[in-house]
Amino acid sequence: MILATFAIFYFILIRPQQKKQKELQKMIEALKKGDRVITTGGIFGEVVGTKESNIIVLKIDEATNTKIEIIKSAVASVIPRNK
Fold first, then answer.
1. What is the pLDDT of residues 8-55, one digit of tens each?
2. CA-CA-CA-CA dihedral for 9, 40, 21, 53, to nearest 10
3. In whole angstroms, what is the distance from residue 81 CA to residue 83 CA?
4. Which of 6, 41, 61, 63 suits 17 as a labelling partner, its CA being 20 to 30 A distant?
């Protein structure tokens, strides 16, 4: 009975979370210059470069050319470009 309960929890809770984490990691590794992203803090920006293996530079304002550096893991999602 305990084994069956663990199996249910694994397939309902643990496995989907692991799959979601792998997809997020693949998305972060695929970031490139020109991608529009949203950070976990809600900041919209465009990737303009990288500083180290885990730091990216985002341009957040066109008019003043404001740029910030963030850790790649702070990227929540990539915004698809309209064609």
1. 988 898 999 999 999 999 999 999 999 999 999 999 999 999 998 899
2. -150
3. 6
4. 41
